[in-house]
Amino acid sequence: MRRRRLRAAVTTLTLAAATLVTLPAAAPAPTGSPAGPSADRDWSVAMVDSTMARYTPSTIGGWSYPVGLYLYGQYLTYRRTHDARYLAYIKSYVDRFVGEDGSLGQSFNSLDSMQAGRLLVILHHETGQDRYRKAAKKIVDRLASYPRTGDGGFWHADTTSRAHQLWADGVYMVNPFLVEYGEEFGDSSSTDDEAAKQLAVYGSHLQVANGLLKHAYDESKTAGWADPSTGLAPEHWCRAVGWYSMAIVNVLDGIPQRHPRRAQLLSVLRKLAAGLEKYQDPATGRWFQVIDKGARGDNWTETSCSSMFTYALSRGAQQGYLDQHFKAVAHRGYQGVLAKLSLGSDGRTNLADISIGTNVGDYAYYIARDRATNDFHGLGAFLIMNEQLRGD
Fold first, then answer.
1. How many other C-beta atoms can be found within 10 angstroms of the C-beta atom of residue 1?
2. What's the alpha-carbon Rg for the chain, to the nearest Å?
3. What is the pLDDT of residues 337-351, one digit of tens each?
4. Each residue of 297-308: b (16+ CB within 10 Å) or e?
5. pTM of the full predicted structure?
6. pLDDT value at residue 30
7. How far apart are the C-alpha atoms of 90 and 68, rounded to whole Å?
């Protein structure tokens, strides 16, 4: 307890000092110069500094999972660099929404709305301020009454249009938060069990023979995209599978070695990894927007999912969840993502070919999605990947 108070006091002083620090001016660079996979550049720092220069904590956006994902990646960069500006920025963003009494004006009627809850756990860990615990607990309390499928899977959202539906995206939005909440607040038994159950339930419905996951499943089989016999969506959309791949690794990292669902989760991950290896683009090392249809001329390699898969395969091999040869698969993915970096004339770092937010659809729908530069889905996934593989 004394260590916690000392750490919180030091963090508070550091954060206060960080608010007085301004970002250094960006070094000029030729317009659109290719960044390339340079080993001597800290791409996480470059990405965070560039994004902080583009947005203040007030202008980066509302309470949302893409911003939450990006700021989680920024936190990982802070943990390595100890640059106090990075943590101060996260705190300033979160404090827009969390009152001194822990109030948080969110209804949490969708899993998407819960992802940024990871930042609440982080800030409690870094500052010791109880308001972040109170705010985080609101998510846990909401899950107690949150709607589920018959076998216990959380609906993607508590709305008519998402009723009875499991989207692979959703497992990342809540389950890493649950295991981190349990660890921080001494409630791991219940939160670990819930997180492991969700990954298992989703995997049992979404994973098919090729090892990949379909984007979504509708228990009622009434959604326009649902197969009338299986309830499954028609395609393997890459970022949906990417969310699941990161979530299952995070949950395996968090639950006990002897957890009763561990073997089941490892089986799901190993089948998934084999599918990802099979469908990795040999020319670029990246993965396609619709993963298993890379031979089609209009398909394209997508950066956010490629970052997610690269992270999951690397971490999985590092932790012994996967065979060691997956390190080489991850290395090819890493080089492929780095090739999508470039420097603008303002010296800031750009990341290209990121699919914008996406619902469940057919092949034509996914392929027609806008290919954005510096979308937070991609920036967050890139930072998570880069902190895992930098120097590889």
1. 6
2. 20
3. 999 999 999 999 999
4. eebbbbbbbbbb
5. 0.93
6. 33
7. 9
